Amino acid sequence: MKAKRLALLGLLTTIALIIFVVELRIPNIAPVPGMKLGLANIVTVYAVYHCTAKETALILFTRIILGSLFGGNMLALLYSLGGGIMCLLGMLLLRKVIDEKHIWVCSVLGAVLHNIGQIIVAAAVMQTAAVITYLPFLLVSGCVAGLLTGLCAQLLTSRINLNDF
Amino acid sequence: MKNAKLWIIVAAVIFIAAIVWCVIIITKPPGEIVTISQDGETLYTLDLSEESDRTITVEYEGRENVIEIKDGRIHMLEADCPDHTCINTGWLEDLPIVCLPNKLVIEFADESGADAVAR
User: Fold this and answer.
1) Residue B116 pLDDT exceeds 70
2) Which domains are present in chain A?
3) Cβ–Cβ of A126/B88 closer than 8 Å?
4) Which of B35, B62, B68, B14 is nearest to A147 (CA)?
5) Tens digit of each residue's pLDDT, chain A (165 residues)
């Protein structure tokens, strides 16, 4: 990997981390575990369309692991990873069937997959199916949040081209 | 061919289905039988209509959760986990009370669970 490319990926990861840490300060609106805006995923969605699969995975996993460390909640790491992996695989596949003008659709579906991944991990860790009751509430908030982050990524994509750097 | 319209419809269907699912959960009448389980094992099965007011302390790896039963309702009173989501959930109504760090779940038993208690 070229040093320039590495620096760019580092920059993207840092931006995602900063958004993540700032978002930690936003209080939860609903008492549903795992429900959040996920603004840091603006960077993930952007990377899905502008970086290779490997680069996107590097950005996402570095952000999740360092984010959990900074947030001081290592218990949340498993849930984030479960959701992150589902979301990443899904979006990398969707990238092939959804064009760049419809990034927001990809983002919404990515958020849905993230929620499903979170619930699967929660059900496995807690050894109970009770957590599935939370899924529809996560899905509704996930769709809205995914739309928001997707539109943000859409705005960025027409303005910033990584190859210009 | 990249067909974005198809995926917009897929996303819309998921969103609407999730809303309908939410409504079903919210409108479901609450039961009387409550189970408290940890790590997949049922610790307590309680009939809220017959329970007197009391608190139950559950321990997990040195961390404690205090569950309170009052006036036929149940909620998490104290927890020494970092997020306190379970306390913020309030009284048990539509959604199960879940403490992710301590793997504790308080929920209304489903039909089969209620049968098991009756037997």
Assistant:
1) no
2) 3-164 (1.10.1760)
3) no
4) B14
5) 789 999 999 999 999 999 999 998 888 777 777 788 889 999 999 999 999 999 999 999 999 999 999 887 777 888 889 999 999 999 999 999 998 889 999 999 999 999 999 999 988 888 888 888 889 999 999 999 999 999 999 999 888 877 776
| Percent of chain B clearing pLDDT 70 (strictly above) | 90
Going by pLDDT thresholds of 50, 70 and 90, the confidence category of residue B96 is confident
Residues of chain B contacting residue A118, judged by C-beta atoms under 8 Å apart? none
**Does A127 contact B103 at a Cβ distance shorter than 8 Å?**
yes
Gap between the Cα atoms of A155 and A18, Å rounded: 19
DSSP notation for B57-90: EEEETTEEEEEEEETTEEEEEEE-SSS-HHHHT-
* ipTM of the prediction greater than 0.90, yes or no: no
Q: Which two tokens stand for residue A13?
A: 């990861």
Q: Which one of B5, B8, B15 would you mutate to disrupt binding with A, by most A Cβ within 10 Å of its Cβ?
A: B15
Amino acid identity of residue B91, one-letter, is W
DSSP states of A114-165 as a string?
Answer: HHHHHHHHHHHHHT-SGGGGGHHHHHHHHHHHHHHHHHHHHHHHHH--GGG-
Backbone angles phi, psi at B76, to 5 degrees: -85, 120
Q: Are B25 and A28 a contacting pair at CB < 8 A?
A: no
Residue extents of the structural domains in chain B: 31-118
Beta bridge partners of B58: B65
Query: Is there a contact between A131 and B90 if contact means CB atoms under 8 Å apart?
Result: no
Q: How far is CA A27 from CA A35, B88, B113, in A?
A: 11, 12, 36
B31-118 CATH pick, 1.10.460.10, 2.60.40.1640, 2.60.320.10, 3.40.50.970:
2.60.320.10
